[in-house]
């Protein structure tokens, strides 16, 4: 936990779910609670906790152990749809009030494709309380549908998992929250990680989960707009500001229209943030 917290990740997520055996859940809660207790409020803003899924017996105990020390946010695994986020919101509100935390201030990121039924609800998260990002998972999805593997002979995700990635991206766009790419378990293949991060960023993803400290700098680099991108975005915005009534503008041998302007503004907003 110390090594992760001292690293370069924007958000550090301590896991109470898949990384912890059943008989070790209690000890893990105590360890995370003690670690968070020793951190300032500013430090805790980037220290989140992944609790266990709502259809199991552990979620209430997880939240009861970590909420008194104010984690930066909660990751909800195996979300089956908006109703799970709403149920989590009710649980968090009660614990916030009980512990002197302003109600509604603990954000949530939802893992939205880890069970088969959840694939059909990725578009239902519009306006879900507390939701600040959506991500997806391929390993638990493979388990949910009884697949032998989620990878093809070429080492790439097969159709069902690419579909999960696309549905998550579309669902996040509909909910107006960032889409976060799932992990790359092959943490030694840093070249492959960089290529994948750059590809999903082009598709619209705004970040990626890491499982090893060596992955973090490469992910940060892939998702940070370059100087050329920023300059081009500013140029597009300036062109449209100079021609406010134009729907399309010819520029350097190609036609720019309003979607180009929108994407440029989004990129500059990301840089400013």
Automatic annotation (TrEMBL):
Pfam families: HpcH_HpaI (PF03328)
Record domain HpcH/HpaI aldolase/citrate lyase: where: 2-213
Cofactor needs: Mg(2+)
Matching InterPro entries: Aldolase/citrate-lyase_domain, Citrate_lyase_beta/mcl1/mcl2, Pyrv/PenolPyrv_kinase-like_dom, Pyrv_kinase-like_dom_sf
Annotated positions binding substrate: 50, 114
Taxonomic superkingdom: Bacteria
GO terms, biological process: oxaloacetate metabolic process
Keywords recorded for this protein, A-Z: Lyase, Magnesium, Metal-binding
Molecular function, one GO term: lyase activity
Coiled coil: none
UniProt-annotated binding residues for Mg(2+): 114, 140
Family affiliation: Belongs to the HpcH/HpaI aldolase family.
Protein name from the UniProt record: CoA ester lyase
